[in-house]
Design a protein that fits this description.
Length: about 220
C-alpha cells in the first residue's frame, strides 16, 4: 500500500512539474502544434460559429500590490469579433472587430479606434480572434510559437515578430484543455494582463439578429 501511494505521489508531482514547465523552452511550428498539442481543441473550435461565456480580467501592475479585477460575459462570433460586457466593478462594453475597437462606459461612448487609422488595432483584433478559435495559421503569421502538453492539458507561447506588436505585449501564453481557459499577456515592463474564461458554450449555427445587433456598435 505504501509503495502504491508513493508511486501515485511521484506521478502527481511529475505531472505538475511537466505542466508547469516553461512553454518558451519548447519552440514549435504551427503545423507541429496542430498535429499534436492543439489537434483536438483546434478541430473542435473550428466548427464553432459562436462562443459564449464568462470572463475575469486581472491587470497586475508592478507599482500596485493588488491586481485590478473586472468580470463579465463575452460573445465571440466568427467573422464578426468579440463583444465584452464588463459587469463589475462598473458597467462597460468593448466591441473588438477587424474594423476597430469601440468602448462604452455606463452607456456612453468613451473610445473609438479605427483599424484604418491605427493599423496596430487590426493586428490586435486578428490576434484575439485567432486565439478564440486557436487559428494557428493566423498566429503563425505574426508570432514565434512554442508549446507543450500534458494529458489533455496544454499551453502555448507566443512572441511577436514585429517590433510594433511589442508595444502591445512582449509575450503571451494561452492555456487550456477542451477550451481556451486563460490568456496571459506580459508587456515589456513586466506588467501582466490575465484573462480567465469559463462556462463556455458553443454553437455551430449562424448568430441570430439579436447577437449581430451587438456588433453594430463597432460600425464606422
Amino acid at each position: 500500500m505504501k509503495t502504491a501511494c508513493t508511486s501515485l505521489l511521484l506521478m502527481l508531482l511529475w505531472s505538475l512539474t511537466a505542466y508547469a514547465a516553461d512553454p518558451f523552452a519548447h519552440p514549435a511550428t504551427g503545423e507541429a502544434l496542430l498535429a499534436s498539442t492543439l489537434a483536438k481543441p483546434a478541430a473542435q473550435l473550428s466548427k464553432a460559429q459562436v462562443l459564449k461565456g464568462r470572463f475575469t480580467h486581472s491587470k497586475h501592475l508592478r507599482e500596485i500590490p493588488q491586481p485590478l479585477v473586472a468580470d463579465g460575459d463575452f460573445i465571440f462570433v466568427r467573422d464578426l469579433g468579440v463583444y465584452w460586457h464588463t459587469q463589475q466593478p462598473f458597467d462597460s462594453v468593448v466591441v473588438l472587430t477587424s474594423k476597430g475597437i469601440v468602448q462604452r462606459d455606463e452607456g456612453s461612448q468613451t473610445m473609438r479606434l479605427s483599424s484604418d487609422e491605427q493599423p496596430a488595432v487590426r493586428v490586435i483584433a486578428d490576434v484575439f480572434l485567432a486565439l478564440f478559435t486557436l487559428d494557428v495559421a493566423r498566429l503563425n503569421a505574426n508570432f514565434d510559437l512554442y508549446g507543450l502538453s500534458q494529458g489533455d492539458r496544454w499551453i502555448i507561447g507566443l512572441r511577436p515578430r514585429a517590433a510594433a506588436m511589442n508595444a502591445v505585449f512582449k509575450e503571451a501564453t494561452v492555456t487550456g484543455a477542451r477550451d481556451v481557459e486563460e490568456v496571459v499577456l506580459t508587456d515589456v515592463h513586466g506588467d501582466r494582463t490575465v484573462i480567465d474564461l469559463s462556462g463556455i458554450e458553443y454553437s455551430g449555427a449562424q448568430p441570430g439578429a439579436d447577437v449581430r445587433a451587438l456588433f453594430e456598435l463597432a460600425r464606422p
